[in-house]
Amino acid sequence: MTVPDEITSGERLMGPLIGADPGTGAAVEAAGRAARAAGVHIREITELGDLEAVYRLYDGIWRPDPANPPVTTELLRALAKAGNYVTGAFEGPRLVGACVGFFRPPADEAMHSHVAGVSSAAAGRHVGFALKLHQRAWAMLRGVSEIAWTFDPLVSRNAYFNLGKLAATAAEYLPNFYGGMNDGINGDDDTDRLLVRWALNAPEVTAACAGTVRTCDAESERARGAVVAVACSPDGSPVPGVLEGRTLLVAVPPDIASLRAADPGLGREWRRVVRDVLTTSMADGAYLAGFDRSGWYVLRRDTTEDLG
User: Fold this and answer.
1) What pTM does this model have?
2) Is the dihedral of CA 84, 171, 277, 280 positive or negative?
3) Is 10-209 assigned to CATH 3.40.50.800?
4) pLDDT, tens only, 115-133
């Protein structure tokens, strides 16, 4: 099977995808639709000037400690040369988003997506969604069946994006995974992360990439007997609840980045409370069934029941 070096429109399908299975062809088509809807052209990056542009984009997004950038141009160069995933979303000649990933054991079946970011100039256009669908199609064309990545569990928009819009599955809670990053997003808080796995051919993932969001409704769950394990008080503080129940609801703050900037101590308190509840519950057999966009994780102990 011939593998195209870019996925931007369905017009390229007939030639490059001869020999591809129907699921892969559909993934390429979905990626093309997402790129067009976002108004971007997504392609692999190998040239030094473009790699430097990725470094500058990430530097502007994260505003890192100069001694600890998310990536360096040299690392990007090595990853790209070794055949890993380094791509950019372009609006004309301007880079507005980028995503970097690398193969992980078993190298011919799985990838780890290390970092993705979109310029504030392209906010609200779903460029991040287009990048992830491009990454999925790119991986499937190479026989990869799963992509994993991490995100900050306190960032509600990322929880909704990953668990709802992409239908990824939360696999593991990782306390202070990266250590101190001291950048403009994480501040001096611990870098707790949720590891998610994206089964690229799973029916729910295919549906999500076609535009069907995997939804949760915390109020409906509460009406069916869910208990509140963490709530948000009127003053914005976390309120620990109870952990005894088949379905648990865990609140997160609406905007942890602004909260951390305004009140770092309160941000750390949210980190501690949510960490304690999620690690305790997941160790006790609960799993993250999804995220309500209003700001609630839904955890279940009954693995035979799926969200409708």
Assistant:
1) 0.89
2) negative
3) no
4) 999 999 999 999 999 999 9
